[in-house]
Amino acid sequence: MARWRLAAAHYINTNDTVWEYSEVDRTTGRPKRTQFPVPRLLNPEDPGDWNHVYSKDGFGKPDTGEIVVAQGAHEPKDYVFEGAVTPDMVPLDDEAKKISAASAHKWKYSPDTLNGTYADEMMKDLSEQLNEVRAASAPAAEGMTELLTAMTGMMKQNQDILGALVAVKAPAASNGVARK
Predict the structure, then answer these.
(1) What percent of the chain clears pLDDT 90, i.e. is strictly above it?
(2) Would you state the pLDDT for residue 41?
């Protein structure tokens, strides 16, 4: 039995979460429903998502709780999920430890080195990649500056030429003589 406790919010593929699209067929008048499997959001900070609840006195309002997910054989309250494990899943048994260890080579971060959650580390990594792309595109911007400088000079020359043409036509119009 492979079981993990969630340390951070996850979108997990479970077999019991679907989105249903329904419409009425215009020709027959019968309803048509299509169901699509969608991931389920499980957040350990939301008491509504806890599937293992603990109370100090054993009665009344729960004091603490956790979300336990499993693959394969599981306890009745566990959420059964499909897919890969993440560093934010804490293994609870030996089989889960083996699966996590086998998947650890795919993770850029290990649970010991995280400064927050896996999602936070991924966002930091994506920000660094974006900054690298911006830095790599900077030389193209320098070439653009030279192009804009040349175009500005050409535009100034065009204005000077147009100004000279207008100056030549203006005195002729004031004398009442039309030029061809």
Answers:
(1) 26
(2) 92
